[in-house]
Write the structure tokens for this entry.
Amino acid sequence: DESSISENNRVFSNQKLEIESQLRDITSRISQFIIEHGITADNPRDFPEAQTLAGVMTTINKTREAYSIQQSIYAQLQLKLQGTMEPSHEDKRIAELDPRIINMNYRVDERRTKQRELNRIYTPDHPEVVKIEQEVLSAEEERDMALDEIIQQNLLALQKTTSDDIENLGTLLDQYEEDAEDMSKRLQELTADHTEYQALETERRQLEEERHSKVKLIGELTLMRLRADAKRVRVAQAAIPPRELSFPKPEYMLPLGVLLVLGSTLGWIFFRELTDRRIKSASDLSIIPGVSILGSIPDLEDDPTRTKTAELVVRNHPASVMAETYRQACTAMCRTVEQNGYQSLVFFSALPNAGNTTSITNFACVLSAMGKKVCVIDADFRRPRLAKAFGLDPDHLGLGDLLAEKAELNDVVQKSDGIDVIAAGTPSERVIERLVTSRLSKLLAELRDRYDLILFDSPPAVVAGDALSVANHVDATVMVVRANREQRGLVARLIGQFNSSPSKLIGIVLNRPLSSAGGYYKKNYAVMAKYSLNKTD
């Protein structure tokens, strides 16, 4: 016991000595830091530099106010000298105190006195009366001209004085601001030094607390040594090991643990499915009022025919499952189009990367294969992709040039295997605001005479309002929804917005729906692929 206590005492004493050495070192560093950096207060706001800076800022504000007043006076004097502003009564009063004006006023008063005497003696048309009237007018005109001249001289002198005051105040203000900047930098340096000083003080306090803790431990060891009952516990009787395990019982805990984990997992899955509002399959769309589903387009990975690209899949891979689903969706759309006599449609999506451009290219291929004369137009001026999807020049003359009336229809149409394509146009003419003008309606009227169907590709409706602008000009709309990304509430809101436009929402194309292995969609896709690829069946 004595050996153990002595060893602990030695360890704690050595730690205490080391802490005291660190304390002496940091105390010396703090003293040296205070001397080198001139720390004179515990709070940076109490530094003399901070109080001096406050006084300089007050002087700067007063100088700026005086500078502003002098500038205002100078501007008024400039207007008065230019004749834009009338001289003030004070300007006239000061000019009237000039000796020349006083003498001229005296001469005018003498002539007016003489005029009153002559008016009492003679008739108004008497030569003496007429003469004195002319003398009075001449004296008054001479006085007024002199008064104007003196006012101008006074204004010029005052302008010169004001200009000098402005220059002096500006120089003074620059000097004050330079001094304030120097003081501010010095104060920032002092504040940084004070922060470092506070860090040193904090470190010293921590070391003092550690030293106090070590002293306390050493004192407790000393008391333990002096206590008579502080002896090592002796074993009175060896413990008897239990014959069997009382807890945990494996035969109970293992099944219970499995059930708990399974129940937690199922509960979490149920909760996620209950709170998940994303559209995953056609059944999620069917619960939205007023929704007609034209078709579900599978993901490339779900197509058993191993199609490489989705764009123009109807043309490049006609036997693929994806091409067949596009044909089915286009057939459903054509029924509504033919029943209602629609001729122009706009395809739109809610969010980017929903597959809108891919859908319109494949619908155009299906319609062209049906024998219809189709024209597809890229109305996405922000990120045009339609012409590139058809392998055409994306910067060719297009819709923007037509709306700007800088090109004719025959100049902008590009051909792609029986499909007429109108690109977004040259980059400088892709002005979004032109989509809401009547020029688009005139263009549609011309296109209806040439084509059976006109299809517009538009940007996502959430990030741009272009699709809604085009919808106000066309006959119908088709919405492309990307599964596992878009919320039911968002789709319902967009349907409400587009139903309020003059065009009719035909239906929704669901792109890349959720398809579990061995599920309904997987089986259908497998049957479709087998039927398309087995030529002898």
